[in-house]
Design a protein that fits this description.
alpha+beta, 2 domains, about 20% helix, elongated, serine protease inhibitor, Antistasin-like domain-containing protein, serine-type endopeptidase inhibitor activity, Hirudin/antistatin, protease inhibitor
Length: about 100
């Protein structure tokens, strides 16, 4: 369509962002890094990795698909109990896989 821009039309950002890029109003990546991988940019527990330990009760473990990070994010209203269960299950499976390997 004429006059319509897509995210592919934007310049490519060459900066590495551990938690990914911030999105603009159109949902396209900007060249600004996210400060947190948690829902709505909520702060994660600093100096605490859930890769080897479980998160405190009011947090869930967020693991990057590349295993670049494993941080404890606060539970927010957007995260329902089903999703919490899924995160805990993924964590326990990853620990199991490491112990078996």
């Amino acid at each position: 369509m004429v006059g319509r821009t897509t995210c592919d039309d934007r310049p490519l950002c060459r900066m590495y962002c551990l938690f990914g890029y911030r999105l603009d109003a159109q949902g396209c990546a900007t060249c600004k890094c996210k400060s947190s991988p948690c829902e709505d940019g909520a702060p994660f527990l600093k100096d605490y990795s859930c890769q080897f330990d479980s998160c405190p009760e009011t947090y869930y473990c967020k693991v990057a698909s590349s295993n670049a990070y494993a941080v404890c994010c606060p539970v927010t209203a957007k995260i329902n109990s089903r999703r919490m269960h899924s995160h805990k299950l993924q964590y326990h499976l990853s620990v199991y896989k490491k112990s078996v390997a």
